[in-house]
Amino acid sequence: IHDDGLAAIKNATDIKSIRENIRVKLLGKKGPITQALRGIKDLAVQDRPKVGSYANKVRDDLQAALDAKIADLENKKLNQQLAAEKIDVTLPGTPVAKGHPHVIQSIIDEITDLFLGMGYEVLSGPEVEEDKYNFEMMNLPKNHPARDMQDTFYITDEILMRTQTSPMQARTLEKHDFTKGPLKMISPGVVYRRDTDDPTHSHQFHQVEGMVVSETITMSDLKGTLELLTHELFGNKFNVRLRPSYFPFTEPSVEADITCFNCMGKGCSVCKGSGWIEVLGAGMVHPNVLRNAGVDPDKYTGFAFGLGPDRLAMLKYGVSDIRDFYLDDVRFLSQFN
Ligand code: FA5
User: Fold this and answer.
1) Could you tell me which residue ranges the Aminoacyl-transfer RNA synthetases class-II family profile domain spans (predicted)?
2) How far apart are CA 311 and CA 127, in angstroms?
3) How far apart are CA 163 and CA 306, in angstroms?
């Protein structure tokens, strides 16, 4: 029993069968050892201790072998399980498609960085704006004919979708404390116009407003700033040209053209043969705009500009249709990653 039992335990491969078969068979109530121990009382008195202690030894040996085998099998099972569940953290992961800023946002970020570096504040204003800030304080009273230059989405008589970022000039002038120094701000944002969409016009587009007001600002400060801006954005191969223009809120007013990216100034269909492309409006802040915001026009002067980053992005990347920026076609947008 002893040797056969140990051999059966040694060869066993399955914990359940050890517990249910081998253990029950060898050490159970009906097993040979229990029987032998029970039969001791029938033996001669002098034989009882010898048989008894031998039967106990066999039982203890088998029990110890069973316990060791079960521990060994459990250990093996655990190791197998650990090996099967092992994770190789060095395997490459499943790639996740990463987003990136929209190309127009990237241009706005570039412009913002440049002006932050020159000590300008960066402000944002409401897209749903009061007529007062969008037009009236900007020297465009009700029924002023120049309101027609910017076809407007009205919400009520007094509330509209802003047609330009210029209302931020009025909002900032109204608040600025000139005893603390000059006003220098840019304000990027979205504007809306009832324009018919075409390759260079969208009914929703972006502008970046800029304004500097102090006691000493002249037109040459404006030209220098605009030249710096275009050279930073486009490099030195492009030239800037200021052309007389009209805006009700600046006097004198200019529009800035830069060398046409398509023909480099020679004249082509993109620039309608002129060699130049218009990118922004600007000028010296009109005395009425200063006065309307409570700033003394005899003491302070300033320049302001409003540029269209959508058009700048078209120039920079040679995009021929502004509508492509708003179609959310990832194949188009991912080119600018
Ligand atoms: C204005 O909106 C003035 N507020 C600019 C200004 C600011 C002048 C400060 C003086 C002082 P304008 O309507 O020209 O001006 O628009 C400015 C720029 O916005 C244009 O040069 C052009 O780049 C862009 N823009 C105008 N309309 C559209 C449109 N429908 N789609 C895309 N870009 C446009």
Assistant:
1) 103-315
2) 20
3) 12
Q: Helix count (H) and strand count (E) of the chain?
A: 12, 9
| pLDDT, tens digit (0-9, with 9 covering 90-100), for 105-147 | 999 999 999 999 999 999 999 999 999 999 999 999 999 998 9
- List the residue whose alpha carbon is closest to atom 31 of ligand 1: 201
User: Mean of the pLDDT values across residues 273-295?
Assistant: 94
The pLDDT value recorded for residue 135 is 97
Coil, helix or strand for 97? coil
Q: β-strand 301-307 against 204-214: which pairing, if any?
A: antiparallel
Q: How far apart are CA 146 and CA 160, in angstroms?
A: 16
Instruction: Look up residue 216 and give its amino acid.
Output: T
Residue 312 alpha carbon to ligand 1 centre in Å:
12
- The Å distance, Cα 335 to ligand 1 centre, comes to 26
From the CB of 311, is ligand 1 less than 6 Å away? Answer: yes
- Two structure tokens written together for 126: 């409401």
Q: Specify the 3-state DSSP secondary structure of 73.
A: helix
275 lines ligand 1 (CB under 6 A): no
251 annotated among ligand-binding-site residues: yes
CA of 322, closest atom in ligand 1: 32
- For residue 88, the CA-to-ligand 1 centroid distance in Å is 57
Relative to the CA of 305, which ligand 1 atom is closest? 9
Does the beta carbon of 248 sit less than 6 angstroms from any atom of ligand 1?
no
CA 208 to ligand 1 centroid distance, Å: 9
ipTM entry = 0.98
Question: 254 CB under 6 A from ligand 1?
Answer: no
Q: Where are the beta strands (DSSP E) in the chain?
A: 121-122, 128-130, 159-161, 183-192, 204-214, 240-247, 250-259, 276-285, 301-307
What would the two tokens of residue 274 be? 């002129």
CB 275 within 8 A of CB 263: yes
Average pLDDT, the chain: 92
Split at pLDDT 50, 70, 90, the class of 320 is: confident
| H or E element, residue 280 | strand 276-285
Residue 304: how many CA atoms within 13 Å on its side-chain side?
30
> What confidence category does residue 181 fall into, taking pLDDT thresholds of 50, 70 and 90?
very high
